[in-house]
Specification:
By secondary structure, the chain is an alpha+beta fold. It has one domain: Hypothetical upf0131 protein ytfp. The strands form two sheets. The protein has a five-stranded antiparallel beta sheet with strand order 1-5-2-6-7, with no helix packed on it. Helix 4 runs antiparallel to helix 5. The relative contact order is 0.20.
Amino acid sequence: MTYGNFWPSRDHKLNMKVFQYGSNCLDSEINSDKRLCGHAKFIGTAETVKEFELAFDVWSNGRGCAASDIVSKPGGKVWGALYEIPEYLIAKETARPRGRRSLDEIEGVGTNYQREMIDVRRADGQVINVLTYTVIKPRADVKTNEAYVGYIVAGLRERGVNEAYIARVKTIAIANNLDIADLVDAM
């Protein structure tokens, strides 16, 4: 692709818009030294255009609990954080030569999650197509824990998502694991 007489160089920084709905809503998670090292730029909040609901249906060895997913559900909407992430940090093949972890690696692409393009509606009403990650093989027999839910709740609050949606997330987490009900209610 050309831009007038300008050809983008190999080092030209292209960014992908990425929708995160789980623990990566929290800046200290997605931009930690173990993840994207400050290269995920928060650009706003958004909700899914299609009808989805948050679910805890995939086992995370790193978290020791069920991690989040979005699943089709009539009437549902999922809120999350929108980021611009350098394109080279999305795939393992382009991140590793630069000594970096990719978002695909962080999300467990091919093992737990797959990439998916979805439409989201920004707070200003603009609909955009973005990259997100959804679970490959959802499971009903896994439970989340209070620490993981705490990251999601803190991230949604940090990003200014409405408390009604945060209350819905807490209800979903409690339904997944009744043992954490009191701790999650107190968040």
